[in-house]
Queue: 2 jobs
Job 1
Amino acid sequence: MIELKDVNYRYRNRNALDNINITIEEGESVALIGPNGSGKSTFLKLINGVVTPQQGEYLFNKNKITEKKLNNSIFSKEFHRKIGFVFQNSDAQLFCSTVYEEIAFGPRQMGFSEEKVNERVYDCLELLNIEKLKHEAPYNLSGGEKKRVAIASVLSMNPEIITLDEPMNGIDPKGKKFLRDFMIKLNSSGKTIICSTHDFEYVEGVFKRAIVFSEEHKIIRDDDYNAVIKDEKFLVENNIK
Ligand SMILES: Nc1ncnc2c1ncn2[C@@H]1O[C@H](COP(=O)(O)OP(=O)(O)O)[C@@H](O)[C@H]1O
Ligand SMILES: [Mg+2]
């Protein structure tokens, strides 16, 4: 469903993705691994249409994703309904006055009836175990709670693919355990998961595949996740560990 062909992306004079070729299929659970600055976040931005390739092409369900198409509101809505993005920084994602409104935002944008919106919100509150927070203001919550709300606000649109940028960052151990179990559950329920991470200790059992980026912003390995994280020599040599 996701296919990148010879993709390059740079910010002004800074390279971020160098000749990326990759295919990700429905139902996969993929970890994006690599040193700081290797391009993991840019890769996630690109597959979510936040940025578009400067060279090469990005195909989503065989459709070429271009700035022009993303500027078309019908295409854009349809695309963003299928792939959801949980930002690294929850504060940049949460902007409504209550948790309920936050989770209701996506389904309302999609034009659902209030009854259907309400149903979706309650399903997601329950799934993330945050019913008690529904009247709270997101900015008052802990890091772990904010992350759950951000995930719920993405899931309320029922996307096929969930992408997460370093979701374990700044989360306490209990919250990390919840997120780990939750990602396993999501993938078992058929959702495709693509997630950047360096917190190997807390994500055991979540990923089948690892895509490894180098400091030169290239993909240097695409392999079984466990094989990669057991390869100490490889991780150390590539400044991953
Ligand atoms: N908004 C930006 N403006 C300029 N350079 C950026 C920006 N975001 C990222 N970069 C640069 O792009 C490269 C890849 O960054 P990023 O995708 O954030 O890597 P990672 O998520 O693996 O740490 C780095 O060299 C980084 O400094
Ligand atoms: Mg990053």
Note: The radius of gyration is 18 Å.
Job 2
Amino acid sequence: MDLLAYWKLKERPFEATWDTRFYFQSRDHDEALNRLTFLVEEKTMNMGMLTGEVGCGKTLTRAVFTKRLNPDRYCVVTQENSAFSFRDLLGGVLQKLDPNGKGHTKFARCDRLKLITERFHAEEKHLVLVFDEAQEMSPGGLNELKLLTNWNGGGQNFLTIILLGQPELRGLVSRLPAIDQRISLRFHLGPITAHECSAYLRHRLIAAGHSHGELFQPQAAERIFNTSKGIPREVNRLAKLALEYAWLCEMPSVMETAVDMIVRDLSRHQTLCAA
Ligand SMILES: Nc1ncnc2c1ncn2[C@@H]1O[C@H](COP(=O)(O)OP(=O)(O)OP(=O)(O)O)[C@@H](O)[C@H]1O
Ligand SMILES: [Mg+2]
């Protein structure tokens, strides 16, 4: 019997994707979503920043946030990778909004984007630019984002910029007062708690088609939490391997020994790699 049939699943529950169907609303993820939504609805703030440890769920939260916004009122353009010059970043944004437009200098691109935001505003639509992996931006490139922040009218900004990035983004921003002062809303996404980790495992199993999601014994879930320190990407990696191991051993549910085996195997190989 294959893995899915053995565990009575319709699909694999712990894959490294940004499938919003698997989104689990922890306290922190919920707060991050609420703050981002407030930021774009308010329209009086220029910029927001969501930081968080590697693998905490920034990109998935961004995907859920984008999906939940009403497309009649918001146009969200996302740069998945921000390791480009300011001019190239603008080019990437315009490629999605105005692919046939003319004018490719930095200032021509700024002007084109300004016209687009004004047109959207006239149509009662708001433009949101999201720069993921913003910790990869050069300080100069990041600083130039200020050129996009003074387009407004009637007390409302025509554009909201959201920076997403790993913790070092905070340091980068703090050295750029012009950007730091424009970031009105910020949030740092932390790991999930032990209690949330058990609920997270259950939630992803149910999203993958399991009837009740109780496949991990409490001690196994606890061991996953302690090893992953509540970082969802690490939780996924351990849970996926433990589910496979327990299937191969024909365990009735995922026992602590399965997680133990996986953790020992991973640390042995990581030690070997480091040697
Ligand atoms: N709240 C959540 N609900 C369900 N799955 C989650 C959640 N948060 C994170 N994950 C899962 O954990 C993995 C890592 O998430 P994601 O890529 O969004 O993290 P990240 O913070 O953007 O990481 P990086 O710093 O590497 O960019 C993904 O597979 C994602 O599906
Ligand atoms: Mg990410």
Note: Residues 58-59, 132 surround magnesium ion (ligand 2) (CB under 6 Å).
